Amino acid sequence: MPLRLHNTLTGTLERFEPLQSGAVRMYNCGPTVYDFVHIGNLRSYVFVDTLRRTFEYEGFQVKQVMNITDIGHLQSDADEGEDKMVLALRRQGYEETLENLYAVGTTYADAFKQDLLKLNVEMAETLPRASEHIPEQIALIEALEKQGYAYRISNGVYFDTAKLPTYGKRMRHALSGDEAGARVETNLEKHNQRDFALWKLGGTIGWESPWGKGFPGWHTECAAMSMKYLGESFDIHTGGEDLKFPHHENEIAQAEALTRKTFARYFLHNAFVTIANERMAKSKQNFFTLRDIETKGISPLALRYLFLTSHYRSPLHFTWEALAGAQTALNRLEHTIASSTTDTGKISTIYRTDFLNALEDDLNTPQALAVAWNMIKDDSLSPPDKRATLLDMDRVLGLDLEHAKSNTILLSDLPERVRNLVEERETARANKDWAKADALREKIIGMEFEIEDTDAGPRLGKR
Ligand code: AMP
Ligand code: ZN
Q1: Which of 99, 103, 176, 269 is the least crowded, having the fewest Cβ atoms under 10 Å away?
Q2: Are strands 278-279 and 273-275 parallel, antiparallel or unpaired?
Q3: Ligand 2 centre from 50 Cα, in Å?
Q4: Known binder of ligand: residue 232?
Q5: pLDDT of res. 180
Q6: If you measure from the C-alpha of residue 126 to the centroid of ligand 2, how many angstroms do you get, rounded to a whole number?
Q7: Would you call the peptide bond into 135 cis, given omega within 30 degrees of 0 as the criterion?
């Protein structure tokens, strides 16, 4: 079956056809590096990684670019409010200079890359930073101005949406009513309230430009950098669903006004991680980071597993119980790998086909996981064949099963004497009888087992 993906541009499932046979060029809207990312943001990048791995599994060569926003992303999508990075400097008591902005951006960009590595995400080939591409952005704005798509007002240069008949129509399948035309803020100097900033004048941190000292608009960064690294037309563009409008509509407007070519052919958007029925967001103070998860003794890869249990276009309702369940499931998969040490097994073609069919159906990862579990439960397959088939599937799942701690032992597989001690210790812990719990731990260690307490329960291994 061919790979089918849901394209926001048409609102339908479309057969994926690359521009260039055997190769995929993809751009992902990356993080704004003003703070640590939360697990909602991370869903976006694990989704992208699953997409990349699926392409690679199918034999495509992938060229991937993910931007790092370190200037120009204002508090409000409507070009108003303060720059999020400048606010971060203020929050940390730093002087508002370009050097400090760059340093703070580097700190959080590095932390972000660490998170991706812990989630076993394959790194994009290029991770360009907005502040390092100011000349490219100025050039793009100058070209738009030359072709009559930009005008100046007292606080900056704006894109003249009325000049582009397709404006507001590209993301129409994703928008309700006339959302595309309705912008709440008013700047009476703008020709049209939906016009957006290409270059903003003023601010404490800025660069010289033909229009005066200032900084580029957030939408300009992605248009300029995607075309620089991937060409005027490329295959795939991704982001969380909040980026459909205005961010992606505005990126398309700039690129297509300039080139008169299709910009990205497929736009893919992931739904949110929610908590208590609300979107997880910095501004709502209802977020967790990967550090919070690790502090509780849960593996980042359990979070990756949890992401895979829901389809990327469905909201994912985060709970600690669900994460603990994901950890248990991950332990079981690791155990399947560890229970056979021979590498001579054969990949089951039947299960491989089912697995691929699930992925080709708009990346149906819950179904792909179900295929993996059916395969594991199938008694007609030998342990080495199960191991080989699961390791093959893990090329897409990305759970790093090959390097799984092969000494993880399921509770049910422990010798009865040890299992009794573990259960006794859990009771002692529940009663807060720490002295007894410690004594039991020593006993367990004395029997050559190691025990680690996690939020998903005790994890046992052979010493
Ligand atoms: P930002 O750093 O705010 O630019 O966001 C980075 C990426 O995370 C964007 O693609 C957002 O759409 C996405 N994102 C933000 N919040 C969530 C959430 N709660 N769930 C899933 N994705 C999100
Ligand atoms: Zn972007």
Answers
A1: 176
A2: antiparallel
A3: 19
A4: no
A5: 47
A6: 14
A7: no
- Quick one: which atom of ligand 1 is closest to the CA of 44? 22
**Residue burial 115-138, b: 16+ Cβ < 10 Å; e: rest:** bbebbbbeebeebbbbbebbebbb
Q: 3-class SS at 244?
A: helix
- For the chain, the structural domain boundaries read 4-270, 275-404, 411-462
Any binding-site annotation on 247? Answer: yes
Check residue 84 and give its pLDDT: 92
Query: In this predicted structure, what is the pLDDT of residue 179?
Result: 54
32 by DSSP, 3-state: which? strand
Architecture in CATH of 4-270? 3-Layer(aba) Sandwich (3.40)
Tokens found for residue 320: 């600690």
Backbone dihedral region for residue 261 (phi beyond 0: left; psi -120 to 50: alpha; all else: beta): beta
What residues contact 12, with CB distance under 8 A and at least 6 apart? 6
What is the structure's pLDDT at 184? Answer: 54
Residues with a CB atom less than 6 Å from ligand 1: 29, 31-32, 40-41, 43-44, 239-240, 242-243, 270, 272-273, 279-281
pLDDT at 177: 52
Ligand with an atom nearest the CA of residue 130 = 2
Please name the fold of domain 275-404: Four Helix Bundle (Hemerythrin (Met), subunit A) (1.20.120)
How confident is the model at residue 174, as a pLDDT? 72
Residues of the chain with pLDDT under 50: 178, 180-181
Tens of pLDDT, residues 391-437: 999 999 999 998 875 556 777 778 888 889 999 999 999 999 999 99
Angle at 329 between CA 326 and CA 330, to 5 degrees: 85
Secondary structure (DSSP) of 57-85: HTT-EEEEEE-BB-S--BSSTTS-S-BHH
- Rounded to the nearest 5°, which phi and psi values hold at 20? -125, 125
435 vs 323: CA distance, rounded Å: 29
What is the per-residue pLDDT for 344? 87
Q: Whose CA is nearest to atom 12 of ligand 1?
A: 240
Give the whole-angstrom CA distance, residue 302 versus residue 296: 12
Structure-block tokens of residue 167 = 């404006």
